[in-house]
From TrEMBL:
Native source organism of the sequence: Purpureocillium lavendulum
GO BP annotations listed: biotin biosynthetic process
Region (Disordered): 422-442
Protein name (Swiss-Prot/TrEMBL): Aminotransferase
Family annotation (PANTHER family): 8-AMINO-7-OXONONANOATE SYNTHASE, CLASS II AMINOTRANSFERASE/8-AMINO-7-OXONONANOATE SYNTHASE
Amino acid sequence: MGQHLDDVFASLLARRGTQGRLRRLTLPSPGSVDFSSNSYLSLSSNAVVKAAYLERLSHAWNQGEFSLGSGGSRLLDGNSPAAEALEREIAAFHGAPAGLLFNSGFEANTGLFSCAPQKGDVVLYDELIHASVHDGMKLSRARRVPFRHNCVRGDTRDAGLRSLDDTLRDLTSREQGAKYRNGTSNVFIAVEGVYSMDGDAAPLKDIVECVEERLPGGNGYIIVDEAHSTGWMGERGEGLVSHLGLENRVWARVHTFGKAMGCAGAIVLCSPTTRTYLINYARSLIYTTAMPYPMLAGIKTAYDHLQSGQVESQLTHLGHLMRHTHNLLTSLISRRQPTRQIFHISKGLPQSPIIPLFTSEARSLAQFCQERGFMVRPIVAPTVPAGSDRVRMCLHAGNTVEEVELFCKAVEGWVRRQQDTAMGSCSGPEAIVKQSRESSKL
């Protein structure tokens, strides 16, 4: 008999461990300050929201509407008036004609991208698009073509990937591109509202204009994953598409509820016809148990909070924290002047609550901060491109100015330690011998 399967797995895990890429489940330390989770509005721990949720469950219990599970898929016994009413309400909130609930953002993306593109179609996708979109595209019958991250126009020949405009031009200018020029085949363009690792927003208005210019026949279909822009972006947290007034120029949106909304699940916003098509062809909807009532109640409660007006002060505070954190980190770099290998951040003001702290020693920085009571995580290749390791800092409406300032002091303490270590390694006996040898060559 061949090698036991567990031995094969153990070997693969050991190899991943030697490469520093072994993933582990961890638990947050009790009492640590959260600068890691995606709960940007802190709704999952908001006392007002939790009380409203419990009141909703109690009311459903008293009315005989409460059930612990849904009992089946939406197409069998799992559908409910609550689910359909919630879909209509969410679609109206975001200015969409219709919506279809999924159990998670991953299932929404895999369901949508696996069945919407037809044979002969092509999906153009931002190189940093989420893994769930990749998995959905692999299940589809369409060709897949990446374009350079957030690059709409410009000469990118030396950058490895072309801009969106160049990619569309190449696609439609070749002899086989006639089907895209005349609209007999479709082009899907996949982007995110805000990218989860870099925290930058898509230049969506430019993307829409570029697609409409290159595909004037109307066969360019833009899909925006709003996972990290839902809840906090815009006046009411409606997301990037609504914030820019592009509801009628974007074909489909995926809004997820497990991040800023503080609960779980997702919805695809689309036309009524597309909704019916997904009900018939999206396997991640057809063959899974529908959301139970407690999950629907959580989503409903979160949206009620967005529409109540109470979120405005939270959004204002979050915006202040974003600017203040950037100023503190910029000041830190100005004072300490670390090398880019040790520490750097993006120059512009943050476009989201996600602020990547770039360093070649991401695990060391994360551990240093964790030991001082701050929950942050290192993000390294292959989750991010090689050479762009970072600690991913996420701000929340529940964080205080004092917590941000103490965290930035901890980061500065680590930078100072790294610089002192580097200075020591350059002044030891081995460095003196090396300098002597170099001098003798002059």
